[in-house]
Amino acid sequence: MTIKYSPDHQWIELNGQVGTVGITQHAQEALGDVVFVELPKVGNTYAAKDAAAVVESVKAAADVYMPAHGEVIEVNEALLTDPSLANSDPQGAGWFFRIKLDNPAELDALMDEASYASFVG
Questions:
Q1: Staple partner for 27: which of 7, 21, 23, 101, CB 3.0–4.6 Å?
Q2: Residue by residue, what is the 3-state secondary structure of the chain?
Q3: How far apart are the C-alpha atoms of 32 and 59, rounded to whole Å?
Q4: Radius of gyration (Cα) for the chain, nearest Å?
Q5: Each residue of 58-100: pLDDT tens digit?
Q6: What is the pTM of this model?
Q7: Per-residue pLDDT for 41 more than 80?
Q8: Which residue, 44, 51, 40, is CA-closest to 80?
Q9: How far apart are CA 68 and CA 6, in angstroms?
C-alpha cells in the first residue's frame, strides 16, 4: 500500500484502484477539536481537487478535497457519530471516505511522506 499527501493536508492510502482518504495529523492539529463532519454520498463522482466533504471544528470549517478523479464507494459512518475520531486517529479510524480511482497514476503528482513532512516543516 502507498500513502500520498496533498498540499491541502489530505492523505490517501492506495490499495489497488481503491483509495482511502482522510485529513493529516497536521490538519487535525490546526483545526482543533472536530465537532462535525459532512461526508459525500456513495456513488458520487468527483474530479481531482473537487471539495467532497467538510470537516468543522471549534476553530474553523474546512473542505476535504478529492486527491484524484474517482467515485465514492464507501464513507466512514463511525465518523458521523463520533467526529472526534478525526482528532484521535486521523490516519486510521478517522478516515473519511474510500474512492475507486479512474486513474491511480494521478496520485503521482502528490507528495510522499518525506516530502509532506518537509512541506509542513
A1: 23
A2: CEEEECCCCEEEEEECCEEEEEECHHHHHHHCCEEEEECCCCCCEECCCCEEEEEEECCCEEEEECCCCEEEEEECHHHHHCCCHHHHCCCCCCCCEEEEECCHHHHHHCECHHHHHHHHC
A3: 6
A4: 13
A5: 999 999 999 999 999 999 999 999 999 999 999 999 999 999 9
A6: 0.95
A7: yes
A8: 40
A9: 10
